């Protein structure tokens, strides 16, 4: 899988989220290790979701994992907290805001 293929798939999964009730600012950077390696960010600002293939310097939290781990998390097949416990996901930054990643993933549009 190339980074372009991975990013297209992960962006599609994140864009299914309904963030209209999230008025806090959340900014996450995702560092992909191994195959499909690269960086992307997810930001929620004023109830609007942005997913872009760039580094985000003013981030609240940074996540590092393999592409397959991020795809499982984004599709709801792997809990982010469990991924950290299993050492499949590394988290740096504001842990309180990092924990809200699950809220974002669980907010799929109906």
Describe the fold and architecture.
The chain has 110 residues and is an alpha+beta fold. It is built from five helices and five strands, in the order H-E-E-E-E-H-H-E-H-H. It has helices spanning 3-14, 67-74, 80-85, 95-98, 101-106, and strands at residues 26-33, 38-45, 48-52, 61-66, 90-93. A five-stranded mixed beta sheet has the order 3-2-1-4-5. Helix 1 runs parallel beside helix 2 (67-74).
Briefly characterize the structure.
With 110 residues, the protein is of the alpha+beta class. The chain has 5 helices and 5 strands; from the N terminus they run H-E-E-E-E-H-H-E-H-H.
Q: List the uncertain runs.
A: none
SS content category: alpha+beta
- Give the strand content: 25-35%
H/E topology pattern: HEEEEHHEHH
Radius of gyration: 13 Å
Inertia-based shape:
globular
Enumerate the strands of the largest sheet in spatial order, edge to edge or round the barrel.
3-2-1-4-5
Main pleated sheet: 5 strands, mixed
In total, how many beta strands? Answer: 5
The helix count comes to: 5
Instruction: Kindly state the percentage of residues in helix.
Output: 25-40%
Terminal CA distance reads 29 Å
Task: Give average pLDDT, whole number.
Answer: 93
Record keyword descriptors for this entry.
110 residues, alpha+beta, 5-stranded mixed beta sheet, 5 strands
What's the structural blueprint in terms of helices and strands?
Elements: H1 3-14, E1 26-33, E2 38-45, E3 48-52, E4 61-66, H2 67-74, H3 80-85, E5 90-93, H4 95-98, H5 101-106
Parallel strand pairs: 1-4
Antiparallel strand pairs: 1-2, 2-3, 4-5
Helix pairs in contact: 1-2
